[in-house]
Write a structure and sequence with these properties.
The chain is of the alpha/beta class and 454 residues long. The protein has helices at 10-23, 60-63, 72-84, 95-107, 121-136, 153-158, 192-210, 236-247, 299-304, 320-335, 338-360, 399-410, 432-450; strands at 39-43, 46-49, 54-57, 114-118, 140-144, 174-177, 215-221, 250-254, 278-281, 293-297, 364-370, 373-381, 386-387, 413-414, 416-418, 421-424. It folds into two domains: 10-70 and 337-450, Aspartate Aminotransferase, domain 1; 72-335, Aspartate Aminotransferase, domain 2 (3-Layer(aba) Sandwich), CATH 3.40.640.10. It is globular and about 60 Å long. The protein binds 4'-deoxy-4'-aminopyridoxal-5'-phosphate. One of its GO terms (molecular function) is transaminase activity.
Length: 454
């Protein structure tokens, strides 16, 4: 395949860019203010542009290329499936769909043994919520502030960040609560145990005042990702399990970002020994080579729909190309010990290096994470913890983060930046040498953020 050094075709890049600017309507963007990079190719942990610049991808795109770009086994599986059968309606049984469902079910915790396939994460959340409402006959869903669940109707309303605000009029039935987060605690807790205890008490009070009989589900990211990779204190996710059981509330864990190796286990829930009633997944299930997501369903909820139809479906549910890529991805991750690699690199290389980096930079307020799922919380002042940019900043107010991101890119590193944070979320396949290369570039770029501290 073409590598960055052997590849430079600026004229071709300019043509790609011209059509993009004329005709592609981009996500989350003011269309006239963006300048997207034209990408010519990608392999493993790298991608490159048409001018011969290569970037080490510390974002895994949108935290989805867990197996890296262009893994030959996954590419071959898609090609082989394309030669056999490209599409088939969801009502039929087909070999790759059956196998993908079994491989996912074998890895999800507990009795989550039935799989409803979707085209991505938001659709998984939509359908999980729908199942919970039908199962309980109750209307409300509780979700956390500082969360991201997708950009479709129910999913965006469940999302606990500013992206919800423009659609808030449609948020009927959604109630937000505070989850645990020591560094910016809503509970003024003095330690992790107290944070956990108070967060659980706050959730119980929220339930009491909303009326337990009206609550269908509580949805949580096992480890909230987009909102800042906030690893919950031990006991929190299990505590929510107990609360859900007490009130007959369906427990939905959203593992769209944290699942399939990201945290160094197949699912983040595995770290906390907890089994939800519904588990949503997407992204890492096939690293996004073909759009795919789904809901893993417990025996209890599956039973509701044994004799009564589930009133939902998607033309492309369990799409053969997507399922073939999932089968190849999951088998390859097992054969090549890719989940184990994520755990080892996180524990031995990334975690220790980020803690050292934090000690050297006044702009790094906190380091948190596990596996290949880490966040640096950037601050103006380590003592006050004032964020480097204000909440939901844009334009000039966001300049410190924009300058930091630009410095990363000049250093050959593609960062994941959200509000006042940069996330270190490379592919699960990243090698020690690649991780060290990226960490060195990050270390250098942070001097730009340091320039904006008090
Ligand atoms: N849930 C979580 C936890 C996510 O991180 C995301 C995507 N970032 C989604 C849901 C939505 O997934 P998608 O973009 O595939 O719809």
């Amino acid at each position: 395949s073409a590598s960055a050094s052997s590849f430079a075709d600026s004229a071709a890049g300019a043509a790609v860019k011209a059509d993009d600017r004329a005709h592609v309507f981009h996500s989350w963007s003011a269309q006239g203010l963006i300048d997207p990079l034209a990408v010519a190719g990608a392999e493993g942990a790298y991608f490159w542009d048409y001018d011969g610049n290569r970037y080490l991808d510390f974002s895994s795109q949108l935290v989805n290329t867990n197996i890296g770009h262009q893994h030959p086994k996954v590419v071959a599986a898609i090609q082989e499936q394309a030669g056999k059968l490209c599409t088939l309606a969801p009502g039929f049984a087909v070999d790759v769909r059956s196998e993908a469902a079994r491989l996912v079910a074998e890895r999800t915790p507990g009795d989550l043994d039935k799989i409803f396939f979707t085209n991505g994460g938001a659709e998984a959340v939509e359908n999980a919520v729908r199942m919970a409402r039908l199962h309980t006959g109750r209307p409300k869903v509780l979700s956390a502030y500082r969360s991201y669940h997708g950009a479709t109707a129910a999913a965006i309303n469940l999302t606990g960040d500013p992206r919800r605000w423009p659609s808030d009029t449609a948020s009927a039935g959604v109630v937000h609560f505070w989850g645990p987060f020591r560094y910016r605690s809503a509970f003024h807790a003095e330690n992790e145990a107290q944070e956990c205890e108070r967060a659980l008490a706050h959730l119980e009070q929220t339930i009491a005042f909303e009326g337990p009989q009206s609550i269908a589900a509580i949805i949580l990211e096992s480890v909230p990702g987009t909102a800042g990779i906030m690893v919950p204190p031990p006991g929190y996710l299990a505590g929510v399990r107990e609360i859900c059981d007490r009130y007959g509330i369906v427990y939905i864990l959203d593992e769209v970002m944290a699942g399939f190796g990201r945290t160094g286990r197949w699912f983040a829930a595995d770290h906390f020994d907890v089994t939800p009633d519904l588990l949503t997944f997407a992204k890492g299930v096939n690293s996004g080579y073909v759009p795919l997501g789904g809901v893993a369903i417990s025996a209890g909820i599956a039973a509701t729909f044994e004799t009564r139809p589930f009133p939902g479906g998607l033309t492309y549910s369990g799409h053969p190309l997507a399922c073939a890529s999932a089968v190849a991805t999951i088998n390859t991750m097992a054969e090549e010990r890719i989940v184990e690699n994520a755990a080892e690199i996180g524990e031995k290389v990334i975690g220790p290096a980020l803690r050292e980096i934090a000690g050297c930079h006044p702009s790094v307020g906190e380091v948190r994470g596990m596996g290949v799922f880490w966040a640096l919380d950037l601050v103006k002042n380590k003592e006050t913890r004032e964020p480097l940019v204000p909440y939901n900043a844009s334009g000039a107010a966001n300049a410190p983060m924009a300058e930091f991101a630009a410095a990363c890119k000049r250093g050959g590193l593609w960062p994941f930046v959200n509000m006042n944070r940069t996330h270190v979320v490379p592919p699960c396949t990243i090698t020690e040498a690649e991780a060290k290369e990226g960490l060195a570039a990050l270390d250098e770029a942070l001097t730009v953020a340091d320039g904006h501290t008090d």
